[in-house]
Amino acid sequence: MKISKKSEVKPRIPTASLPDIIFLLLIFFMATTVLKRFTGLPVNLPSAERIEKLESQRHVSYIWISQDGSVSLDDKLIPKNDFKPISAIMYEKRTTDPQLIVSLKVDKNAEMYLVSQIQEQLREADALRVNFNTLRKAN
């Protein structure tokens, strides 16, 4: 008597739920991805021999000063020669976040009186933790 051989069953990976898994992964990555929030003004930063990097970007507010005198505070343009809004905005930010650090990104060809006026507005807002951004000097 001849015994017939059973057909070999190949293991299969179920693919019925694959679109659901892909969709969930897509939503997860879209929800957790951090996009660049601030673009600022085009600024040519000065160089320095010794620099320190900020530990956290969480409590930082950026002020850009370009060569032509344009000032931007967290992607909001401030009217030229009228820096009073900086004091009000920074006071409100300082009261909501006491650990706030103000990071100044000043073009190396910008006029110093602009930096001085902005620093005066920061003093009025009691935002005394100020960081000046630079580039590492090439050796």
Notes on the protein architecture:
The protein has helices at 18-32, 84-96, 112-124, and strands at residues 47-48, 60-65, 71-73, 76-78, 101-106, 130-132, 135-136. By secondary structure, it is α/β, with parallel strands linked by helices. The chain has a domain at 59-136: Nucleotidyltransferase, domain 5 (2-Layer Sandwich), CATH 3.30.420.270. The strands form two sheets. Strands 4-3-2-5-6 form a five-stranded mixed beta sheet, with no helix packed on it. Strands 1-7 form a two-stranded parallel sheet. The mean pLDDT is 82.
The computed structural class is: alpha/beta
CATH topology of the domain at 59-136: Nucleotidyltransferase, domain 5
Q: Mind telling me the C-alpha Rg?
A: 27 Å
Low-confidence stretches: none
Shape: elongated
- Which class of the domain at 59-136 in CATH terms? Alpha Beta
Query: How many DSSP helices?
Result: 3
Please bin the fraction of helical residues: 25-40%
Distance between the termini: 89 Å
Mean pLDDT: 82
The biggest sheet, with number of strands, parallel, antiparallel or mixed sense and barrel status, is:
5 strands, mixed
The name of the CATH architecture of the domain at 59-136 is 2-Layer Sandwich
Widest β-sheet, arrangement of strands? 4-3-2-5-6
Order of helices and strands: HEEEEHEHEE
Strand content: 15-25%
Count of beta strands? 7
